[in-house]
Amino acid sequence: MVNEVTMLESRFKEALTSGDQARLYQIHVRAMALVSRRKHPPVVSANKKAYEQLILGYICHVASNDARLPYSLWWRAYYGEQKPPKKPQHSTERSRSHLREMRKHSDFTSRLCSKYRIFA
Predict the structure, then answer these.
(1) 72-88: average pLDDT
(2) Is 43 part of a structural domain of the chain?
């Protein structure tokens, strides 16, 4: 599955660079078919540690916003000197939405949302 996603990403970049709209559409249709045939959301990271860091980044993004604290300060308060994941560049509402979907399929995400009182 990961190889198929990587292949689609590569083809997408090539088609985008060349401006080939027909090929972009074909890649889009293939990607949508890939997502719709599964009951779980697509894997956004090839390894578990990176995926967990992504979830922690979303948790910190939402929790720091809810607590009205800077992202890095919230992270340091809960995880000390552990290296923080990059702060998401999108809105906190988008992070909250991602967490809402991830909770449906991940016990890890669900436990963290409960622990930090993130109600998505």
Answers:
(1) 91
(2) no
